[in-house]
Design goal:
Elements lengths: L1 E4 L4 E4 L6 E2 L15 E4 L3 E4 L4 E4 L6 E2 L2 E2 H8 L9 E3 L5 H4 L3 E3 L6 E3 L5 E5 H9 L7 H5 L7 E4 L2 E4 L3 E5 L8 E7 L2 E5 L7 H5 L10 H18 L2 E3 L8 E3 L1
Parallel strand pairs: 6-9, 9-12, 12-13, 17-18
Antiparallel strand pairs: 1-5, 2-3, 2-4, 5-6, 7-8, 10-11, 14-15, 15-16, 16-17, 18-19
């Protein structure tokens, strides 16, 4: 399997939930609001024998009318139409902002990856549409509800006999994680429950998690299993280590 990190850059984020670009060579973290987190925004493209898989879709930023994730794909030699599966951990803006693109003139929405089947937890989508949380854009996600390219999943299951998904419910109530297994190799994507290498090695409860204790225990469990089975971890928010093979 081939792995391509699709970094959208480094950002700080505080209680306002606004992602502010951060240049490590020019900016000082201490000048940002107290409690700001420093994170990378980093979807991944994984190419298997069967599929071109995208893990989450970034913030949805556009440059010159083109989504940054499309530009990042192009730099790796792929286009949006090459993607065959989009595996979505959850629908917070920094993970799902690039799922939908709007026409510059008509403002009509369409899927950014039109040939891909999108796998989204059904309860996560329902919650995103409910308007009960400011972390979701209610109108944005209504478009996904009945789309033929959206497969709603629940609990734990198998996709095409080699991709496993599981409801983990640590970071958000209906967060899910994925394993891709091919020819004895395993790639694990833990979204915001396994976002950085350092978090896998330490035990702490993150204030931004819906169930911080559960997320902490899951990280411990996954890290131990990954060591035993030589997983490759994809880290969506890690500035220095996009992915690590154990």
């Amino acid at each position: 399997m081939k792995i391509f990190p699709l970094s959208e850059g480094t950002f700080t984020i505080d209680h306002t939930k606004v992602f502010v670009p951060f240049d490590p060579e020019k900016d000082l973290l201490q000048e940002r609001p107290r409690g700001s987190l420093l994170v990378e925004i980093q979807p991944f493209l994984v190419v298997t024998e069967k599929d071109v898989i995208l893990f989450d879709s970034g913030l949805g930023f556009a440059q010159n009318g083109v989504l940054q994730i499309i530009q990042n794909l192009s730099s790796c030699g792929y286009s949006s139409t090459d993607v065959t599966k989009v595996l979505v951990s959850h629908l917070h803006q920094d993970h799902a902002g690039g799922l939908i693109v709007r026409d510059a003139f008509s403002n009509i929405p369409s899927l950014t990856f039109p040939h891909a089947q999108h796998y989204i937890n059904s309860q996560e989508l329902a919650f995103a549409k409910s308007g009960n949380s400011s972390s979701y854009n209610q109108q944005y996600f209504s478009y996904l509800s009945d789309h033929e390219k959206v497969t709603l999943v629940d609990g734990r299951g198998l996709i095409d006999e080699y991709i496993t998904y599981e409801l983990s419910a640590g970071h958000s109530r209906f967060h899910q994680v994925f394993w891709v297994k091919e020819k004895g190799d395993t790639i694990f994507f833990g979204g915001d429950e396994a976002p950085q290498l350092q978090q896998m090695k330490t035990r702490f409860i993150a204030k931004y998690d819906a169930n911080g204790k559960k997320a902490m225990e899951l990280r411990k469990e996954w890290w131990e299993m990954g060591q035993q089975e030589s997983w490759t971890f994809l880290f969506y928010h890690d500035i220095k280590s996009p992915f690590v093979k154990l």
